[in-house]
Amino acid sequence: MQETLHKVLSGDFNKTKFLMFAITMLVTVIVWNLPIAFFGIDGLTVVQQRVIAIFVMAVLLWITEAIPAWATSVSIIFVLLFFVSNSSFKFFQGAEGQYGQLLDSVGIMACFADPTIILFLGGFVLAIAATKSGLDVMMAKAMIKPFGNKSENVLLGFLLITGIFSMFISNTATAAMMLTFLTPVFRALPPEGKGRIALTLAIPIGANIGGMGTPIGTPPNVFAIKYLNDPAGLNMGITFVQWMMIMIPLVLVLLTIAWFLLTKLFPFKQKTINLEINGDMSRNWRTVVVAVTFVVTILLWVFGDKVGINANTTAMLPIAVFALTGVLSAKDLQDIDWSVIWMVAGGFALGMAMNGTGLAEQAIKSIPFGQWNPFVILIVACLICYALSNFISNTATAALLLPILAVVCKGMGESLGAIGGTVTVLVGIAVAASAAMCLPISTPPNAIAFSTGLVRQNDMLKVGIIVGVITLVLGIGVLILFGRLGIF
């Protein structure tokens, strides 16, 4: 409050965002208090109407960015606890069953420690330990070496390395790290050539596409795997290795296509680049611990089901090992991107509210999705996700769409067989979210690349649209193919 007051008094106050916040709150209150008959959903309860209002609030706040995206997620959890749970104020609960099914307050708070959150947290911890020990620099040096010094080959190397790192490390952190490695390259290139643009754009493209490769590569993947494997929902048991078997080959093909496009759109004037990656790996027992833990964790993510350990449980391995050995300190934990964790938790809470109150099922029954063509549902859902993700956080987009689509898919059942089943729709949403890379605001890696001043918005838009459309078409095609073959 004091900080806000200070901003107002000092003139450092965003009037537009304040206005959007005020409008959002007004719309939310109106939806909260509308006559139930207005919604046209048979059997709608008061609690379910409140969840609709909270959903509207989340949509408006995420789209307008009136407050930070993670703050929107915190607000969702707060409002659910205080107004829709069995721990809310008594006058909001009503008499026994009067207002409908209330949410379990413990379940809402448990969204922050959901097994899928732990999976994501394990990926963050691995990334921090790799950076602290210098293991990431050593890996980058080793991986770029085979590509030699021909300019086009160096570009391919950066695309592939960025893509591989983004499978296991936050794509934002990967983009920042790889652009640091490119600094000496930019100095070596002639300023009048287009090679700098190609190399700069390779980082966000590699990070965005590479994130599709594993369930922990990007938050939309985390949402998709959550709803696919939810024991109380679809309970499909999609494993880490199943995801990688399909998505990694797709990622490699897309990165190769992106490389071809970049070389044609932004040709190098200088034919060779002498690349030096600065930084050294620490040579002590802690580095050995990090390297071994890194390898064991990835092996268990890939083969853990063979010995009865799932991916979520495996994620606790690096967290426990690095804590017990002192590889990471309490201060290092501050480097975890907690805002993303809150974003994901808020999305899970929103999904829980829609399902736990029966709202999603009630709404789906009022719309004859079973009569719709599955291809129409798939294409429309992916296009909506792609369009939204270009302008708002792809995490927020996934948080809004996936809970609804999970229920739609469950209701449609066997009729989705023509497009490869439920997996095609939910993973298709994750692919569509990652394909959105047209603008500097589309993803953090795009923003990081644009901040260098080496890329114009038109350059990013041109490449982003082409690569994005190709990613959508190939991605959905591959999902339909493997889904119909029963592999995914």
Structural class: mainly alpha
User: Whole-number radius of gyration?
Assistant: 23 Å
Tell how many strands the DSSP assignment holds: 0
C-alpha termini separation: 50 Å
Pfam families: Na_sulph_symp (PF00939)
Subcellular location: Membrane
Keywords: Membrane, Transmembrane, Transmembrane helix
Transmembrane segments: 18-39, 51-84, 117-135, 155-182, 240-262, 283-303, 309-328, 340-360, 372-389, 419-442, 463-487
Folded structure, characterized:
GO terms for molecular function: phosphate transmembrane transporter activity. Keywords: Membrane, Transmembrane, Transmembrane helix. It is found in: Membrane. One of its GO terms (cellular component) is plasma membrane. It is built from 23 helices and no strands. The chain is mainly α. It is globular, with a radius of gyration of 23 Å. The termini are far apart.
Short description:
It contains 23 helices and no strands. The protein is an all-alpha fold. The N terminus is likely disordered.
